[in-house]
């Protein structure tokens, strides 16, 4: 990335502070070099509160410190800055050389930043037992957007979608097929053929079936225990393999997985590799991880208390029963040294089954290249051609038998796992296991990219045809539940958004061919959905609402897209390209531009340039904080600044040639940075709206 004004300002300020205050610890300065945005440009383009931070250490008034810093900056000017002023009790306001900034920004080109060699991002990870729903979309959109941000900054990124095809949710579908529907393996195969012939979707069929079996477990109190045991027996049969239950589970999970990939492709979301839990079991990843964890002293065998007979994980700073066992005899008693740690995390249950956390630890040891074992691979899904993959991306899946070509999907230098906040404890356990085994660097580069749930507004639930109790109509949101069958399927949601947009596009542009109308409707609908999921910070519960998402006003995807469409209209009418407009401005000397960048009339122009100049900084901020919402907010503010500029200035009828050149270049730079930001958010900018 190019060096932004903010970065240059911090760099030069750091040098001045070292000279002015050598008595202070140099590390003090790095933390206080914050660059803020004043509420109005009349207060400056940037505001620096560092004098307040230094006041206690220097035992001086903040304003006095600010005056010293401004005086030092007068002796050592910073390129691109016109002035520094002391304001209020000690703020330092910085003013850019506007004409120099504009001419420099026109010529800027982003270049790749050297980063970690290979980053793995795992996202989506839907249980392959029913259709994807609206909550899954937040995970997938967040993960896909973060991949785009990393790639925009030059990182090599691998995209993985973990498939729990041997878990309890798949077992529930198998129980439903075998015991509610009375189907054997051959009958299930016939069912799937019939559904395909009738154009019915297997993931939709399983949606209703999953709700039925969930209720069936609890329906008869006298049968509850037996039915729960049936569920557990089916789960163990699937994990073991080589039986009809396992074959049915694999058949259903694979078919539903393919539908999930097709659903996500509608939103522009693709994957490189689909690691399945079945291969983690059958390729004996856990066995190797188990021996490694024992050898590293992370596990011990509990001989007392509620976890008696279990292998549990050592917790830092706590007493435990026995020293870690390094022998391979799992039944050997540990040496008793203290009372049992009742809160220790169980990794292997007393019946010998491995917990979810145990399998996840093994999986992440593989991700970091810390296991000698590797998956076997086969091609599973072919994506259509794209700008990034001319022949289409190939999606691989883990397999029992290996292909001739062995792609590289493990040995990552950093990992981001997009998993909802309810899984914080298991994620923390994996990190703690890595740290306990001595893999501290890997633990530091393991990020749980957490997020809160997606619910529905009562209005949205009514729009979807659900009966909402009167007491729920005043609630801010209603939680979805797959077990109860309450929620909105992802494809139904996308279809409904497209349908709502299709009629609007057709009425506005009847002259367009139907295919172009349909494409524009898809772009607007997907943009609305993706932006709605991205504009909230990750720790915010989202209450989804159709009307809010599709509005052309306010903070919505269509509003941003409309701003980009408006810039395209300008250049069609001007009969020139945005690049030509920027080249024309670059040819003008700074003194021809400067008069139109000062005064009240120029503030709307300058606001666009100043905001556009922050795009690269926002990209870095989003990656550093793992928060795409900052870029979504930036894009919205840029669209607002452009709309304000567009209302105030008559671009195409401006008579002064130099000013018209500046106005056209302002529209061009707004388009460039807005479309770039939208692309990083996974949103297309339509030609018309």
- Kindly report how far apart the N and C termini lie: 33 Å
Please count the helical segments.
Answer: 27
The CATH H-level superfamily of the largest domain is: HUPs
| Sheet/helix structural class | alpha/beta
Rounded mean pLDDT is 90
CATH topology of the largest domain, which one? Rossmann fold
Describe the global form: globular
Largest beta sheet: strand ordering:
5-4-12-13
What is the percent of helical residues?
40-55%
Shape-level CATH architecture of the largest domain: 3-Layer(aba) Sandwich
CATH class of the largest domain: Alpha Beta
Count of the separate structural domains: 5
Radius of gyration: 29 Å
Q: Can you tell me the residue ranges where pLDDT is under 50 for at least 5 consecutive residues?
A: 321-337
Main sheet overview: 4 strands, parallel
Measured by DSSP, the beta-strand proportion falls in 5-15%
Q: What is the β-strand count?
A: 15
Pfam families: Arg_tRNA_synt_N, DALR_1, tRNA-synt_1d
InterPro entries: Arg-tRNA-ligase, Arg-tRNA-synth_N, Arg-tRNA-synth_N_sf, ArgRS_core, DALR_anticod-bd, Rossmann-like_a/b/a_fold, tRNAsynth_Ia_anticodon-bd
GO cellular component, one term: cytoplasm
Family: Belongs to the class-I aminoacyl-tRNA synthetase family.
How would you sum up this structure in a few lines?
Helix content is 51%, strand content 9%.
């Amino acid at each position: 990335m190019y060096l932004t004004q903010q970065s240059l300002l911090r760099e030069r300020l750091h040098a001045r502070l070292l000279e002015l205050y050598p008595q202070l610890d140099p590390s003090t300065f790095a933390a206080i070099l914050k660059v803020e945005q004043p509420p109005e440009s009349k207060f400056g383009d940037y505001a620096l509160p560092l004098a307040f931070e230094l006041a206690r250490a220097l035992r001086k008034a903040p304003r006095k410190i600010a005056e010293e810093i401004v005086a030092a900056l007068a002796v050592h000017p910073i390129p691109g800055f016109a002035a520094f002023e002391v304001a209020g009790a000690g703020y330092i306001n910085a003013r850019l050389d506007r004409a120099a900034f504009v001419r420099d920004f026109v010529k800027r080109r982003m270049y790749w930043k050297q980063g970690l060699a290979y980053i793995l991002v795992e996202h989506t990870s839907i249980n392959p037992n029913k259709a994807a729903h609206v909550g899954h979309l937040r995970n997938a959109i967040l993960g896909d957007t973060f991949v785009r941000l990393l790639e925009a900054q030059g990182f090599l990124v691998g995209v993985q979608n973990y498939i729990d095809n041997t878990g309890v949710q798949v077992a529930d579908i198998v129980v439903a097929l075998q015991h509610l529907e009375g189907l054997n393996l051959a009958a299930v195969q016939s069912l799937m053929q019939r559904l395909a012939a009738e154009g019915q979707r297997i993931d939709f069929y399983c949606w209703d079936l999953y709700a039925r079996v969930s209720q069936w477990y609890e329906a008869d109190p006298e049968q509850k225990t037996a039915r729960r045991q049936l569920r557990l027996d089916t789960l163990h049969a699937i994990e073991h393999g080589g039986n009809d239950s396992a074959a049915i589970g694999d058949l259903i999970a694979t078919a539903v997985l393919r539908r999930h990939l097709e659903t996500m492709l509608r939103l522009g979301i693709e994957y490189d590799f689909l690691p399945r839990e079945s291969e983690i079991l059958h390729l004996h990843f856990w066995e190797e991880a188990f021996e490694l964890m024992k050898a590293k002293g992370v596990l011990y065998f509990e001989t007392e208390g509620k976890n008696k007979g279990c292998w549990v994980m050592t917790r830092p700073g706590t007493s435990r029963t026995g020293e870690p066992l390094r022998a391979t005899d799992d039944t050997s008693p540990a040496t008793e040294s203290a009372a049992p740690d009742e809160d220790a995390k169980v990794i292997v249950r007393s019946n010998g089954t491995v917990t979810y956390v145990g399998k996840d630890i093994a999986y992440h040891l593989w991700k970091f290249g810390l296991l000698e074992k590797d998956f076997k691979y086969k091609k599973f899904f072919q994506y259509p051609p794209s700008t990034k993959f001319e022949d289409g991306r190939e999606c691989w899946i883990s397999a029992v038998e290996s292909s001739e070509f062995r792609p590289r999907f493990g040995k990552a230098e950093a990992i981001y796992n997009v998993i909802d906040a309810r899984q914080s404890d298991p994620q923390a356990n994996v990190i703690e296991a890595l740290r306990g085994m001595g893999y501290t660097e890997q633990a530091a580069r393991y990020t749980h990219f957490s997020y809160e749930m997606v619910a529905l507004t009562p209005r949205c639930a009514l729009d979807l045809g659900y009966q909402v109790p009167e007491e729920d109509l005043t609630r801010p949101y209603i939680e979805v539940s797959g077990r109860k069958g309450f929620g909105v399927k992802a494809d139904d949601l996308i279809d409904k958004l497209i349908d709502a947009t299709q009629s609007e596009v057709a009425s506005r542009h009847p002259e367009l061919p139907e295919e172009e109308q349909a494409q524009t409707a898809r772009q607007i609908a997907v943009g609305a959905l993706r932006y709605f999921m991205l504009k909230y910070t990750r720790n915010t519960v989202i209450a989804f609402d159709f009307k809010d998402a599709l509005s052309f006003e306010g903070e919505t995807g269509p509003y941003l897209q409309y701003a980009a469409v408006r810039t395209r209209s300008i250049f069609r009418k001007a009969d020139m390209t945005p690049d030509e407009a920027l080249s024309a401005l670059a040819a003008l000397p700074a003194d021809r531009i400067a008069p139109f960048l000062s005064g009240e009339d120029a503030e709307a122009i300058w606001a666009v340039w100043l905001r556009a100049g922050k795009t690269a900084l926002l990209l870095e901020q989003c990656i550093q904080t793992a928060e795409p919402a900052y870029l979504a907010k930036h894009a919205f503010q840029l669209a607002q600044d452009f709309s304000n500029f567009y209302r105030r200035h008559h671009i195409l009828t401006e008579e002064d040639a130099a000013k018209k050149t500046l106005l056209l270049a302002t529209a061009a730079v707004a388009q460039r940075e807005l479309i770039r930001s939208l692309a990083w958010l996974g949103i297309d900018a339509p030609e018309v709206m």
